[in-house]
């Protein structure tokens, strides 16, 4: 059971990273250099991590057993 959850989380993280990198390259092709300037045109998941919105808020909601996660 735990291996399924770990695998699912890894797949989710990599999917989100590829999705966001694609957004960055599309924006760059249209002239917006924000993603390149912020160093987000990489597959490194840590570059796409927002400490408050991606870590603290979901963790706080999970610990509070909130019925609404997002």
Overview features:
mainly alpha, 0% strand
List the helices and strands and how they pair.
Layout: H1 2-29, H2 34-37, H3 51-63
Instruction: Please report the total strand number as a whole number.
Output: 0
Structural class: mainly alpha
Assembly type = single chain
- Pick out the low-confidence regions: none
Biggest pleated sheet: none
As a whole number of angstroms, the C-alpha radius of gyration is: 15 Å
SSE string: HHH
- How much beta, percentage-wise? under 5%
N- to C-terminal separation? 24 Å
Mean pLDDT: 91
Domain count: the total is 1
Helix content: 55-70%
Helix count from the secondary structure assignment: 3
**What's the shape?**
globular
Task: Summarize the structure in words.
This protein has 70 residues and is an all-alpha fold. It has one domain. The chain has helices spanning 2-29, 34-37, 51-63. The longest helix is centred in the N-terminal third of the chain and has 28 residues, at 2-29. The radius of gyration is 15 Å and the shape is globular.
């Amino acid at each position: 059971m735990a291996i399924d959850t770990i695998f699912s989380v890894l797949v989710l993280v990599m999917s989100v990273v590829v999705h966001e990198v694609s957004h960055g390259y599309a924006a760059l092709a249209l002239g917006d250099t924000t993603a390149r300037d912020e160093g987000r045109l990489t597959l490194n998941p840590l570059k796409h991590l927002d400490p408050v919105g991606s870590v603290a808020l979901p963790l706080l909601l999970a610990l509070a057993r909130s019925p609404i996660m997002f």
